[in-house]
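INTERNAL AUDIT FORM
Audit reference: QA-55
Scope: verify that the stored structure record matches its stored sequence.
Auditor: D.O.
Record contents follow.
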Amino acid sequence: MAKNGDIERTEFALPDDAPRAAGLGEGAAGKPPVRNPDLDARTTSEEQDVETSLRPKSLTEFIGQKKVRQQLDLVLSGARARNVAPDHVLLAGPPGLGKTTMAMIIAQELGSSLRMTSGPALERAGDLAAMLSNLMEGDVLFIDEIHRMARPAEEMLYMAMEDFRIDVIVGKGPGATSIPIEIAPFTLVGATTRSGMLTGPLRDRFGFTAQMEFYETEDLTRVVMRTAGILNMNLSADAAAEIASRSRGTPRIANRLLRRVRDFADVYAGGVIDVKVAQSALVVFDVDEQGLDRLDRAVLDSLVRGHGGGPVGVSTLALAVGEEPSTVEEVCEPYLVRAGMVARTPRGRVATAQAWRHAGLIPPDNAPGL
C-alpha cells in the first residue's frame, strides 16, 4: 500500500518523520504556506461551547493577569460596600486573553445578570436603545469589540453611561420629538482588541481601564493543567509546559493546542500525553518550538534568505509567500515582532539576530539584537 513516495510521506509525517515537517518555510510543492488556524487567537463558533465549560467562575479561579485581578477586585469590592453599581469597565488587549471571561466574572461577583452583545451588531441607535431599556438595576452589559460600534449607537451610549438616560427621537422632519427615557443604573463592560480605535469621548467615560497582557509560560502551564483536569486528560507537567511554551502567550491558543495534542495521543499513545508525545503532536500540526507555523516561518525565510535580512516592505514579503499584505501585517507580524525576530523600521522590516539563528544561519554583524 502507498507505493508513491509522496503518499507515503503524507501518511507518516508523524512521530518519526515529524521533524522534517517543521522545516523553515516548508510547504507543499508549488503552493503557498497556509495559516495554521490553531494559532489564531480569535474564537470560532465551533469552540464556544468548549470554552464556556473551561471558563473560571471567579477572580480567585482566574489564572494570570495578577495586576488586573487586584485592581478589579478593589473596584468591585468598593462598589459592593457602597451598594452602588461599579464604574464602567474597559478591557483592552489582544484576542484570546480572557476579556469575555472577565466580563462574566464581573457579573458573577456582583450577583447580577449579564447581557451580551457586540459592537458590529449595534448598527443603529434603536438597536442599543432596545437593549438599554430592558436592563434591570445592577445589570452588567457586555459589548465585545466595542470600537466597531456604529457612530449613532455610540453617541447614544454617551448619555446612557453618564446620566443613565437616553433620548429617543419620534417622528420625522419638523414634527420630530425627543422623548427622554430613564434607564436603570447598570455597569457597562466594553472589550476591545484595538483601544487606539476608540473615540476619545467613549474612552473617557470608562471609570476603569484594564490592559490585558500576554501570559508568561508559567501561568500558561497552569492554564493547560487546569484544562486537562476538567477534560480528564492524562497529561504530565512537562507536556503541559511544552504546550504552554508554544502558545504565543495566549490561553485560547494553549487550550486549542492541548485539544490537538489529545487527538494525537488518543490515536498514537493510548491517550497518555508526555513531553515526547506533545512534541511529536505539535510538529505534526506545524507548530515549532517558538510557536511559529508554516506561514510565519515562510515570512522569516523570505526575509532572511530571500532578502538578506531586509529592510523589505510588507507588500514584498506578502508577495513572496503568496499571501495578502494585510494577513502578513495583522496576523504574522505582531507575534514575530513581539518574539524579537522582526524589527519594524521606516525603511521596512528587518530580521533580527534571533531570526537568523532560528533559520539556522549566522547573523551578520549589523543584525539588530547583536
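Auditor finding: record pair retrieved intact. The longest strand covers residues 165-170.
Action required: none
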